[in-house]
Amino acid sequence: MKKKYLELLVCPETGENLKFIPKSESNTDNGCLVNESNTVEYQVINSIPRFVPLSNYADNFGMQWNNFPKTQLDSYSGQSISSDRFWRSTNWPKKSMKNKLVLDIGCGSGRFSEIALSSGAIVLAIDYSSAVDACWNNLKSNPNFFVIQADIYNLPFSANSFDYIYSLGVLQHTPDVKKAFDALPKLLKNKGEICVDFYEKSFKSSLLPKYWLRPFTKNIDNKKLFKWLTLVVPYLLSLSIFLSYIPFLGKYLRRLVPVANYKGIHPLNEKQIKEWALLDTNDWLSTAYDNPQNSITISRWMNEAGLKNIEVLKVSHLVGRGKRIL
Predict the structure, then answer these.
(1) Do the beta carbons of residue 110 and residue 134 sit within 8 Å?
(2) Is residue 141 within 8 Å of 119, Cβ to Cβ?
(3) How far apart are CA 39 and CA 51, in angstroms?
(4) Cβ atoms < 10 Å from Cβ of 240
């Protein structure tokens, strides 16, 4: 465990500082974190502090990212898909992030942590699922990176800790989206900045096939659903691609097929198109929660949190940006 980041953590139950007790002198990758009053203990497994049960409502994400840990990393795909989304969404000057403390909420396998690290930032990443294992394996060689498994509703950080906070593609998958968002602004330092994004809630989006399939598919065992999707997604993808070639109507017809089809959208090769299709289709159909938001709601939440310089706009998703001024 990277002990130099221990001082950034507090007990989420009592707010006390934590001390690390290794399993043994020869095994410092495992052990536990104990609060000052010795009343609460958290496991450290494979160098990652675990503040939540190892199995939870985000198991589907943990499973997929541990099966495909590198698929959406720009360093693996050879593309700038994650980078483009990160910088367009945050609009943060890269040079301003150097040596600043950044919190990645819902890191998955680390696609956006990798981008933030490229700016010279110090990145603490959290995820509720076992995706933290994939993220750690991908990025642990970077001395400016640390990851923990934690609950957004009960974060192990003190207020006023971070210069930047972002959460991309995550908050709509929590049980209470507003409560999840409200947990974040207070963690910003004075003049700290936050960026969050959401699926957009609209009549058009409500017609997407995933929303009328999810009531059935989200109740299927994660492993069984993923195995089934592994078999059917290639066929659904081929159908979606075929329909997209129909003049005038193709771009609409392809959306009727319940599969994530990025052909013609992202510059991926055929193997990557299939992997991204499988991962995002699994996201659509297996997640326990999927709660899109609209711009009015996001603006209200950011205003209620006391943020300034608020912007809510459509990038690839519906993005909210703001700054905390104390």
Answers:
(1) yes
(2) no
(3) 14
(4) 22
- 121 vs 112: CA distance, rounded Å: 12
Look at residues 201, 224, 97, 103 and name the one whose alpha carbon lies nearest to residue 152. Answer: 103
φ/ψ of residue 264, rounded to 5 = 85, -5
Query: Per residue in 80-138, pLDDT tens?
Result: 999 999 999 999 999 999 999 999 999 999 999 999 999 999 999 999 999 999 999 99
Domains and CATH numbers, the chain: 1-50 (no CATH), 76-200+293-324 (3.40.50.150), 203-286 (no CATH)
- Indicate if the alpha-carbon torsion angle 148, 156, 88, 297 is positive or negative: positive
Are 2 and 123 a contacting pair, CB within 8 Å? no
3-state helix, strand, coil in the chain (%, to 5): 40, 25, 35
